[in-house]
Design a protein that fits this description.
The structure is a single chain. This protein is of the alpha/beta class. Helix content is 46%, strand content 7%. It is built from twelve helices and five strands. The protein has a five-stranded parallel sheet with strand order 2-3-1-4-5, with helices on both faces. Helix 4 links the parallel strand 2 and strand 3. About 17% of the residues have low confidence.
């Protein structure tokens, strides 16, 4: 056999032997790690499943919000806070407490109100949902539903939705504005807009049905919480929150029973816009036809009449 061919053969054999030795060594380490007593948590001689780290249902006051599972979320936040955010101090002597609901129909400014509350109080607000956009930008307690947060966002109604809470803040926005805002959110995200083509989809039938369905939902949510929620209820209007942010926000904070120093509101008002208020955009056409406007007016008057009848002038039962 020529010298060159013999060299190639030896080199190939050496590679084969190295590969076999490597496989044997790796297998030995793997078997050693899977001996009884060294199994990963949750595995019992079966396929191992991995779970995301869970946030405790009740977090102590001294919990380091800047460490662990919350760190990646806060690092990405573009919001400047008036004070370092934290969880509500636990009151162990009182036992488990139901949280406070922050109720609204989608598109009514719930996220903006949560932002204002966090700025003013320094406490996290939670949500019955898990919006990953909010989770990464300013709302690390998204999906937490207990008294470790100041209030919990919900757009739900019905007995199951109401029974979770001890008291509630009901944020109401004019139905046409709320429906339009929700249409923009579904089409363009929290601060985006629907393109004009979206209104013309299916010859306008899609938009028309969207208005009909959401107007019904706006009425049902408002009436259900007004008439069927048995705990303390505080009602505010989005339009009031925009026109007189400080006064309206103070009324909510007073209802929640949280003390906020007067100087703190200077910072809140300076930063009241945040990053989650959608800028105004003028359309070159009116998306609501006369039939829609008539029905919206009828439903709005019915709901507002119920609010004025049930609530006191301050919006508190």
């Amino acid at each position: 056999m020529p010298v060159l061919s013999r060299f190639k053969f030896c080199l190939f054999a050496l590679l084969i032997v190295s590969y076999i030795v490597g496989v044997v060594v790796l297998s030995a380490f793997s078997l050693h790690g899977l001996k009884k007593g060294n199994l990963p948590l949750g595995s019992k001689n079966k396929a191992v499943s991995f779970q995301r780290p869970q946030i405790p249902r009740r977090l102590k006051t001294n919990y380091d919000y800047g460490s662990g599972a919350l760190r990646p979320m806060l690092k990405r936040s573009r919001i400047q806070w008036c004070s370092e955010l934290k969880f509500v101090p636990s009151e162990e002597d009182l036992g488990p407490q139901k949280p406070v609901a922050l109720v609204s129909f989608p598109g009514s400014g719930n996220t903006w109100l949560r932002y204002l509350l966090q700025q003013a109080t320094g406490y996290y607000t939670g949500s019955v949902y898990k919006d990953y956009g909010l989770l990464k930008n300013g709302f690390p307690a998204e999906s937490i539903v207990n008294s470790s947060v100041l209030a919990v966002k919900t757009h739900e109604w019905g007995n199951n939705a109401r029974s979770m809470f001890s008291k509630a803040v009901l944020l109401v926005r004019a139905p046409d504005k709320a429906i339009h805002a929700e249409f923009n959110r579904q089409s363009g995200g929290h601060i985006g807009f629907a393109s004009p083509d979206r209104y013309r989809r299916s010859n306008g039938k899609y938009w028309k049905q969207f208005v009909v369905d959401n107007l019904r939902g706006w009425q049902q949510l408002s009436m259900d919480w007004l008439h069927n929620f048995t705990g303390p209820l505080h009602v505010i209007f989005y339009e009031q929150l925009v026109a007189n942010t400080e006064y309206t926000l103070k009324s909510v904070i007073h209802f929640l029973g949280v003390y906020v120093p007067a100087k703190k509101f200077d910072c809140v008002i300076k930063r009241k816009e945040g990053i989650y208020r959608r800028k105004r955009r003028l359309l070159r056409f009116d998306p609501f036809n006369s039939e829609m406007k008539e029905r919206i007016k009828e439903v709005q008057e019915k709901v507002y009449g119920a609010i004025y009848k049930i609530a006191s002038p301050e919006g508190k039962r």
